Amino acid sequence: MSRALDLETLAIRAGIHRSDFNEHSEALYLTSSYVFTSARQAADRFCNREPGNIYSRFTNPSVTAFQERLAALEGGEACIATASGMSAILSTIMGLLKAGDHVVASRSIFGATVQLLTNILGRFGIETTFVPLSDIDAWRGAVRSTTRMFFLETPANPTMELVDIAALAEVAHAVSALLVVDNCFCTPILQRPLQLGADLVVHSATKYLDGQGRVLGGAVVGSNALVVEGGVFQFLRTAGPTMSAFNAWVCLKGMETLGIRMEAQSRSALALATWLETHPAVERVYYPGLPSHPQYALACRQQSLGGAIVTFDVRGGQEAAWRLIDATRLISITGNLGDTKSTITHPATTTHGRISEEARQAAGIKPGMVRLSVGLESVRDLQDDLKQGLG
Predict the structure, then answer these.
(1) Could you say which DSSP state residue 242 is in?
(2) What is the average per-residue pLDDT within 280-295?
(3) Counting C-beta atoms within 10 Å of the first and last residue's C-beta, which end of the chain has fewer, N or C?
(4) Which residues pair with residue 221 across a beta bridge?
(5) Where a domain ends, among 227, 255, 283?
(6) DSSP string, 286-313
(7) Where a domain ends, among 255, 282, 313?
(8) What mean pLDDT, rounded, does the chain reach?
């Protein structure tokens, strides 16, 4: 074709490598190792003199297909698939940083990421400073001579706060730091951070890329220099936080419907956010697609839609939030998100329950806050389910 393929097409066609059987659906390669034609070929494969599969800890055709498809969607040169979203973040940092390096991170990131940066990586000499996500001056002011990486989520989990990726990329690159963006909430269908200046994108494939809550997975996308040659792949090859072939195959099939799911779920989320904003039991709604969102103009520039996550504060604090959650009969009470089934959770006592109260307050996570991941059910049914606890 004379032009690049659209995202909807890439989500279905990118990464397909048919076997000698010429199958139409992608094959699933459930094997731990591969047979070589000779000892010399084995040696050449292991020394990278000849391309080909070696061992499924770091080379597998099903995983390769997933990697190629996600790289195409994100507009990256390369992708490395991992066992989970957290292992994608771990592989990125361990593969590219060393003891004595410094990270500047948003204070409004997933609770487990905060734990990883402080309680685990901190023990190995990698220090982290947390700053308000949207305050560009705070990022600039936190830079040290040892700063090597900026890490963030936008929209943030669960506050739905945004940052101008392009503006922050300029700050990071001015001090020779890498900008790493967790694109889990938007996926490349709604936002493409690499095009805005980010160096790397990380994903929890467990969420929207699978889309049906079936398997765990993660990914790191960026340039060949960083992902393959810069250390991320070498960390994965040696340490082994690897995506399984089966999970890669499931995510491949999930990605075929990624575009239509993200669009449909985002439309429903906007409808629910608009309704919740008028409900007397709701104190505040956090959704980038609402004109009332303080960064609505940025969301319109940076994202194609508002996304499928709606966070809101219930009047009455934790007791009222728990009462709402417990009253639901249709929406699933679970910490996961990105499913075709709508899910609901109380961030302060679940996803962000292990961080300190001070850190929760700094991140804007309130006792009455509820996070709703909007699925593909009818909006009317979801409204009726929420009404039971909202009154």
Answers:
(1) B
(2) 98
(3) N
(4) 79, 201
(5) 255
(6) E-TTSTTSTTHHHHHHH-SS--SEEEEE
(7) 255
(8) 96
